[in-house]
Amino acid sequence: MKKIAVLTSGGDSPGMNAAVRAVVRKAIYNDIEVYGIYQGYQGLLDDDIHKLELGSVGDTIQRGGTFLYSARCPQFKEASVRKRGIENLHKHGIEGLVVVGGDGSYRGAQRISEETKDIKTIGIPGTIDNDINGTDFTIGFDTALNTIIESVDKIRDTASSHARTFIVEVMGRDCGDLALWAGLSVGAETILVPEAHTDIKDIAEKIEKGIKRGKKHSIVMVAEGCMTGQECADELMKYINVDARVSVLGHIQRGGSPSGADRVLASRLGGYAVELLMEGETGKGVGIKNNKLTATPFEDIFNKDDHKFNTDIYELAKELSI
Ligand code: ADP
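That's the ATP-dependent 6-phosphofructokinase sequence above. Prediction below.
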């Protein structure tokens, strides 16, 4: 393997830069040339492909977002369009491609490795949602978790000053991990996630009991995939007369300097992706399981649901918020 390329695709996440930096430095350390593909698969089609040097990734490890930029490129799902992208890779003599992104981005990488045997592909999980099979954690999850915790700690100050119930809506369409981990970390009264049913009437009763006991405030953590914060507040107020306020954290969850945990994870996964390419591996996504680096075939990542909702944490959060 003499030349590889790296791109970031789909939703950005803090730590993507650290992952790209690791890919670039690990490759150059091993005498492999590295090309950055700007704007994800769109840049691959537009031949927005440029050689990266050691210095190209200097001063990026601490930066959120992705300096390679990310883009949605729906037309990449069509084989005839992908052919153009593959031709561009061939034109530059690229033999290996590292894709940092989510499930959709992995599908693009899988197609490339199926459609041309001389380009090997490896995926690195970059998304704050923690919703990718084959890994316990995705790059960006820990930073987003810390952003939510910081925000809710501030909300809590005003919630207790005014004895209010705050409904905090966080990201997570299909995966409630951010709501779950953040909920446990901030001592939320209730955590609403897509993976578990919670009766709003029960939440109302719990909040009421807390108020009677002299509780100064309540925090309800809602994953967007379950319902919106406003829907939750409207439902709650059908059962109890509380001053419920809604906070939708939105895109601040995606930004910011990556946490230590994310920088370490991104660096490890970036380095490992290059090692796999050097060993001739292809069609796999890297990950971390029980603190061990793993490589899982894309096919299994798409079809084997091994990223289970952590019911132990969910039950513990319930027990600790009586
Ligand atoms: P994520 O990678 O975060 O899941 P998307 O689902 O938006 O984000 O996918 C990112 C990009 O990956 C898409 O814009 C498209 O270029 C490519 N992609 C998604 N699905 C496929 C597919 N089935 N085949 C080929 N490319 C795909």
